[in-house]
Design goal:
CATH superfamily of the largest domain: Response regulator
Strand order of the largest sheet: 2-1-3-4-5
Number of domains: 2
CATH class of the largest domain: Alpha Beta
Helix content: 40-55%
Largest sheet: 5 strands, parallel
Strand content: 15-25%
Shape: elongated
CATH topology of the largest domain: Rossmann fold
Number of helices: 8
Structural class: alpha/beta
């Protein structure tokens, strides 16, 4: 089956360009020209990924992203914008976007980003085996990670994680006790060059702390190592 991509943009020329190139690359493409229609189609048509413009009529891309995440629709989102604005980028990521591209861009670059996101998403269905055991389970204090299910639990409750949050948490857990620089995390989790923009790591670390720390300002799991990066460790007394 072809992967289904929802493209939401109010510029017909961009929609046409992306639809043509994505279809040529083997994807099924559905489109929307405003944020309200994009949100509805995301909810009803279950796309595998959403390419979402930031500046949209009716609902902007930020609000679309926010509403989808509030409804626990965790479809990966690649956000597009004409603004090369750090604040817009950070807000988009904080609302749950998985990736971010600034216009103008080449269709080839969009396709490469889409494929990278889908490869990581599809690992979930590829690794689930009805007869598999939980030998790969990772236990760190009250945190339990099940790689074969792409799930993580904290205090026995399932964590609602975006794809990127899960991948970051899993990578930190695989390297428990090891200090990882922001550049290492960018390379391992996002696996392409963010041109030194390590803020994306800080945003996702902040999200994870909100979900696995009782006091985010006094973390016991995900520690900051000043001047170096982050590490995930076994909390004392656990």
């Amino acid at each position: 089956m072809k992967n289904k991509i929802l493209v939401v943009d109010d510029e017909q020329s961009i929609v046409t360009l992306l639809q043509y190139n994505l279809e040529q690359a083997g994807f099924e493409v559905i489109t929307a020209m405003d944020g309200d229609e994009g949100r509805r189609r995301a909810e009803t048509e279950a796309p595998d990924i959403i390419v979402l413009d930031l500046m949209l009529p009716k609902l902007d891309g930020m609000e679309v992203c926010k509403q989808l995440r509030q409804k626990q629709i965790m479809t990966p989102i690649l956000m597009l914008t004409a603004k090369d604005d750090e604040l817009d980028k950070i807000i988009g990521l904080e609302l749950g976007a998985d990736d971010y591209m600034v216009k103008p861009f080449s269709p080839r670059e969009v396709i490469a980003r889409v494929k990278a996101i889908l490869r990581r998403t599809q690992v979930q269905s590829e690794v689930i085996d009805a007869n598999s055991n939980e030998a790969g389970q990772i236990d760190i204090g009250s945190l339990k990670i099940y790689p074969e299910k792409y799930e993580a639990y904290f205090n026995e409750e399932l964590l609602e994680l975006t794809l990127k949050e899960y991948e970051l948490l899993f990578y930190l857990a695989q390297n428990k006790g090891r200090v990882l620089t922001r550049d290492q995390l960018l390379s391992a989790v996002w696996n392409y060059d963010f041109a030194g923009d390590t803020r994306i790591v800080d945003v996702h670390i902040s999200h994870l702390r909100e979900k696995v720390e009782e006091e985010t300002k006094k973390p016991v799991y995900i520690k900051t190592v000043r001047g170096l990066g982050y590490k995930l460790e076994e909390p004392k007394g656990k």
